[in-house]
Amino acid sequence: MNLEEAEIRMASHKAQDQGEQILSNDAYIQYAAMIKNAAKHWRRTFCEAGSIWQPVVFLTPATLVLFVFAYWPLLQDVWLSFHLWNMISPAMKFVGLQNYFQLVTSAEFIKIITNTVLYIVVLLLVNFLLPYLLSFMMAHLLKRFSFFYRSALFAPSTVSLAVASILFLWIFNPLAGPLSILLSAVGLESPRWFKEPVLVVIVIGLIIGWKVFGYNLILLLSAMVDVPKELIEAARIENASDWQLFRYIIVPMTSSTALYVFVITIVFGLQYVLVPVNMLTQGGPDQGSTNLVYIVYQYGFVFFQTGKAAAFAILSMVIYALFLMLKTKVLDKKVHYEN
Amino acid sequence: MKISSIRGWHWHVVLCGAVLIQLWPLFFMLSTSFKSMDEIFQSTLNPIPAVPVMNNYLYVLKNFPLVQYIFNTFFIAGIIAASKIITSILAAFAFVYYEFSHKEKLFNALLLTFFIPITVVMVPNYLLLSRLGVLNTPWGVILPQLADAMGIFLIRQAMRAIPRPLIEAGKLENAGAWVMLTRIILPLIKPSVIAMGIVFFINSWNDYFWPLLVLQDKSRYTLPLALQMFISAEGGSEWGIAMAVAVLTSLPPLLLYLSCQRFIIHTFMQSGVKG
Amino acid sequence: MSGIVFEDVSKYYGEITAVKGLSLSVQEGERLILLGPSGCGKTTTLRMVAGLEKITSGILKMGGHVMNMVEPGARNIAMVFQNYALYPHMTVWENITFGLSIRKVPNGEIKARAEKALEILNLSGYEQRKPHELSGGQKQRVALGRSLVKQAPYFLLDEPLSNLDAQLRLQARTELVKIHELYRPTLMYVTHDQIEAMSVGQRIAIMNQGVLQQLDTPDIIYQYPANTFVASFIGAPPMNLLQGRLCDGKLRIAGCDIKPPAEWQNLLASHSELWVGIRPEHCRLSDNSLLRGRVEFTELLGSQRCVHVRLQGDELVLCVFPAEQSAIEGTVGISFSWEHVNSFDSHTGCNIGRPHVR
Fold this sequence. Notes:
The structure holds three protein chains of three kinds.
Chain A: H1 2-17, H2 25-46, H3 53-80, E1 83-84, E2 93-94, H4 98-105, H5 107-141, H6 146-154, H7 161-171, H8 178-185, H9 197-226, H10 229-237, H11 242-253, H12 255-272, H13 274-281, H14 294-302, H15 306-338
Antiparallel strand pairs in A: 1-2
Chain B: H1 2-33, H2 37-42, H3 55-63, H4 66-97, H5 103-112, H6 118-132, H7 138-142, H8 149-160, H9 164-172, H10 177-206, H11 209-214, H12 223-227, H13 239-259, H14 261-271
Helix pairs in contact in B: 1-13, 3-13, 4-8, 4-10, 8-10, 10-13, 10-14
Chain C: E1 4-13, E2 16-26, E3 31-35, H1 42-50, E4 57-62, E5 65-66, E6 77-80, H2 92-102, H3 107-120, H4 136-148, E7 154-158, H5 166-183, E8 186-191, H6 194-200, E9 203-208, E10 211-216, H7 218-223, H8 228-233, E11 240-247, E12 250-253, E13 256-258, H9 262-269, E14 273-278, E15 283-285, E16 291-300, E17 304-311, E18 316-322, E19 331-336, E20 342-345
Parallel strand pairs in C: 3-8, 3-9, 6-7, 7-8
Antiparallel strand pairs in C: 1-2, 1-4, 4-5, 9-10, 11-12, 11-14, 12-13, 14-20, 15-19, 16-17, 16-19, 17-18
Helix pairs in contact in C: 2-3, 2-4
C-alpha cells in the first residue's frame, strides 16, 4: 500500500518534471486524498500497531470495577429513591418524590443538618486550620526536627478508626477514664461525653481529628515545602513578620492544596464519622450524633426504609458535588498563583 | 541570634505538645493492655504498668478465635492491595502509553469515583453483592474494592515522571506494550508501587464499615470488626482485654509504617498533588 | 538503498510551526548534520525520521519506501538521545543487549555483537556496572554501543556530545567519525555546535525557524553562505555584514566609496541596496585601504587577536589577526580582497552570488 501511494506521488512528480507546470486535476485529487489517508493511518499507527484493543484490555479491569461499584449505584439510588421498599419484600411501590418530601419536612431533618454543620465546623478546626498552621511552622519557622515531628504526628493516621473509637471511649469514660481522673484532680466533674447532645459531636469530631490530622498535615506540608525558598528569603529581607509571611506569601502560594484539603476534610470527614458513631453511639443520644452520612445507614440497615436511605444518599451526593464544583471553580480562578 | 533561637523554642513547644497529644493515646493503649484489671482502675494514669502481665492477651487468645481474625484480615487486605495495585498499573499504563479518543474524559470519570461517598454505594452494592451470593464471605468485602481511583492517579503520576527518551528508546527497539510495561516502566517505578501497595494494605486492614455490612458470622470477622465485641455502649469493664485486641489490630500497620515511613509519607504527600 | 528523503515535509504543533516545507535527501552512508539555533526544528526533523513525531504533511522516504505511517520499532533505526536514555535499572551489558533480546536475536550472536561493541568503545570490564556508576563519557559510549549492536542502516544522534565537557567532546567527536567509517550507516546528527558540525559532517543542513536555509558541504557553507542567517550563524567570530548602497557604479559602505572590480559590476547592478559580508580573517590592515575606522578594543582569543573597529557610519567591523602581530591602536585602514566577499540582497537576505563561483 505504501508503495502504491509512493508510485502515485512519483508519477505526479514526473509529470511536473516533464514541464507540466500545474498538476493535472486528477493527480492533484489523488495526491490530496493520499495525504489525508496518510494522516489517518499515521494517527492509528502511533497508537501502537493500529490496535485499539490493547488499551481496552488494560483499562477494562479498573473501569469495570469502578463503574459497577461506584457509578451504577448512583443510578440505582436515584431509582430506589422514588420507591417505597423494605429491602426484602418483592413488592416495591413507586411513590415519586414522596421520599424526598417526607425527608425535608421531617422533624429530624433539621437536627441532621445542624449536626452535620457542627461536625463540619469541628472537623475544619481540627483537620484543616490546625494542620495548616502547624505545617507552616514546620516548613518555615523551624530549622530542625521537622522530620521527627512529621513522622510522629502522622503515626495515628495508620491506625484503624475502630481502634481509635475504642481507645477514646476508654479515655473519655466519665467514671474511671484517664480524662475524668485528670478533671477531678482540678475539681471538675467529667461530663458524660457520649450522652450529651452537642458534646457527643465534638468528641466524635476529635476522634476523627486524631486519626486524620497527620494525613492532612503532610498534604499541606508538601505544598508548604514547594513554596520557593527565595520568596521566603526575599520577604525576610523586607523584614516581614511571621504573620505577614503567612498571610501574603504562604496563603496565596498554597491555596490550591489548601482548598483540596478543605474539601476532603468535609467530604471524607463526614464519612469517617460512620465508624465511631456506629461503634459508640448508634446515632444517639436521641439522634444527637447522627449526620447526613450515618442517617443513610440507619434508614438502609436499621429501619429498613430503602427508599428514604436512597433519597438521603442522593442528597448527600448533591451536597458533595456542590463542594467539588466550588473547589474546581475556585481552583480555575486561582491557578495563576501557583504557576 | 539569641532572639531567633528563643522564637524557635516557642514553636518547638507547640509542636511537642501536638506530638504528645497524638502519641499519648497510642502509648496509653499499649500500657493498659499490659495492666492487670486492678491496676487499670487503681493507677489509670501510670504510664508504665507496675507489674506487666500478659493475662489480657492470653485471655483473648484462649477465648476468641484470634488467629482466625488475623488470618481473615490478612487475607482480605492482601488480596485487595494486590488487586488494586495490578488494576491501577494496567489502567495507568493505558492512560500514559496510548492515545485514544475521550482519554481525558475517561480518566476524569475514573478519578471522580474517589469522591463518590460510601452513602451512595452502600445500599445498591449491598443488594448487588447479595444477588451475587457473596454476602457473609470475604469476597463480598473484596469485590467492590478491586480497583482504586487514587491508585490509578498516583501510578499515572509516577509513570509520567519517567523521562520520555527512555520510553522512546524502547519504542525504537520495537518493544511491545507488555515488554515496555514489565521490563522498562515497572522496574523504574518499583518504589512507588511498593509504597502504594503498603498503603492499600494498611487501609483495607483498618477498614471497618464495609466488612460490618457484609460479614455476619463472627468466625468471618476481621480484627477491626472483632473489636466491637469487647465494648458495650455503657462502657464495659474489660478495658485491658479491649486494649490488647486494639494493640494487635494496630500493630501490623504501625510496624509497616515504622519500617518504611519515608516511602509511605512520600506516597501520601503525592496524593494531595492534583494534576 | 538506505537514503533518507524528505519531500515537502511540515510539522505543526497546533498553531506553532516546527518544520515547514522541508525537502532534503540524505545519501546512503553519508554523515549529515542538522545544525541551527535552539527551536529551529532540527530535533523535530530527526524525531520524524525516528517515527517519534507524526508528520503533519509531506512524505518521508527511507530506502525508497514511504515511511510516514511506519511505527518507530519497524524502521530499523538506531538512535542516541541527548541524555543517553540509558535504563537506570539495567547494567551496561543489559542496556546494550536489551534491544537485541527483544528482537529475538540468537544468544550467541548477541554475545558476539555486544563484546565487539564493548571492545570498540573501550568499555570492556564495565559490563556489570549500572549507569549511575559510570562517568559522563562512559555513559555516552554505552549509548553509542547500544546503537552499534543493532547494526541498523540508519543512525540518528540527537546532540550526543552536549553533556560532555569540552575536552572529552573533542575526543568523542573523532571516535564517532571512526565508528561511522567502520559500518557506514546513513547518519543524521543534530547539534547546535558549529564546530562539531564542521568536523563531523560530510554535509550540513542549516535550519532556522523550521525552514532549511542551506544544505551543502562544510567548505561551501563557510565560504559561500546562502543567506545572511547562515553567514552570521557560521563562523566565530561571525562574518561582518555591512550595509552597502550602489550608486554610479560605486559601492558606498560606511561613508567610503568603493569601486567594485569589473566582473562584479553586472552582478551588483540590479541591487541598489545590499549587505556586504566579509569574514574577519579576510580583513587586512592597509594604507591603501577601502574602509577607515577607529580601533575600539582588542580581544585576545588564544591564537588570534580580534580587533573591533568602529567605522564612520557607526558600523562595527571585526578583524582577526595572528596573535603575534603587535597591538593595533588608533585610526586604521582596512582592506579586503573581493574574491572573499559575499553580498546579500537587503530585502530577501539571499546571496547574490560571486562572479567567479557561479
